[in-house]
Amino acid sequence: MGVIVFVVFAFAVIGLIHLYLWKRLVRDTTRPGPWRRAGGVAAIALGVLVPATLIGTRAGQWWLAWPGYLWLAVMFYLIVVLVVLEIPMLVAKLWLRRQRKAAAAVVAQAPEPALVGAGGPPPEAPPAETPPGHNPDRRLLLARGAAIFAGLTAASISGYGIRSALGPPQLDRVTIPLAKLPRSMEGMRIALVSDIHLGPLRGRSHTERIVNMINEMDADLVAVVGDMVDGSVEELGAAAAPLERLRSRRGAYFVTGNHEYFSGYQQWVDEVARLGLRPLRNERLEIDGLDLAGVNDIAGEEYDDGPDFAKTFDGRDTSRPVVLLAHQPVQAHDAAKHGVDLQLSGHTHGGQMVPWSLLVRLEQPIVSGLGTVDGTKVYVTNGAGFWGPPVRVGAPPQVTLVELNSQ
Prior knowledge:
Layout: H1 2-25, H2 34-58, H3 65-109, H4 136-166, E1 170-177, E2 188-193, H5 204-217, E3 221-225, H6 233-240, E4 252-255, H7 258-262, H8 265-274, E5 277-279, E6 283-287, E7 290-294, H9 309-313, E8 322-325, H10 332-337, E9 342-345, H11 357-363, E10 369-373, E11 376-380, E12 398-405
Parallel strand pairs: 1-12, 2-3, 3-4, 4-5, 7-8, 8-9, 9-11
Antiparallel strand pairs: 2-12, 6-7, 10-11
């Protein structure tokens, strides 16, 4: 029942969004006729494309991904720009209305023309001029100007975002001090990557580029913190295969993200193990005086495979520092209760598309970079891929080299 309610709500929102876009971009900018009818048909088609893409790509219809997800990006920025324009547009309309009223008042106060002679017919009145500000074309031009500005702005931002999303991830370097870090682990380097999102828009070449980038870091340890795939092993096994070439001194480790659970988590746990990455599934291991732990993603709770912090940290030596791999930053609230020194996470994509990041902050305590949650240090990487629209604005794709130092 909950799923049905969500689907109905989502369809209603999509419908209202496209109704708004039709009103601002079609009805307000055209006169009744074939252009307005064509615009209405286009609005309906694009409205249908959005749910068709979201449902179809999950069902293996990947040909829908490019047109559907590109329209999602343009649609998002059209809404943002048009909403921002609502206030100046309202001011302009009020000004035009005031001009019309002023012009009408001038006409009403004009003196009656004098009669030529008694009993004679009144002179023919001169043709009335259109009062200033009463030209309906002004409102039409105003609406068209706003629509053109919104369209060009949305297309430009989306184009920039596509270039950013499809380009190589940037390398972020961060040094994080841990008070209990043993001298033997001083300067330990962790190559951190998250949200690779292999799927309909990202394939083997994306994985190869990330692997090459990580191998060039010459890291001590590699951490892949979830959302590696958006599809089954059958669909994406070949795309993920380059991960077997990952190199590091102390191994490569993997924890599940929410998208692994949408994609058949057990088959991917087995597959990454076959590729040489060690899955950390609510477990902890000791590496030269440091505890490395990993917990399952919150989404696993729906599959009886959720995070188990009590099991992960049962009986640990609290004199050793612990670094936790957990897909979502919000899991730091539980991590802090178990004395975790540092949590490494992804999931947020850094917001992926500004100003969407403002909404991400409502769900996650940290969107990007280093912060503290209940006394536990948390570093959140932007992720190396994207989900949905192949667009990143204000949050470039990222692979991070984390260096640990003692205080």
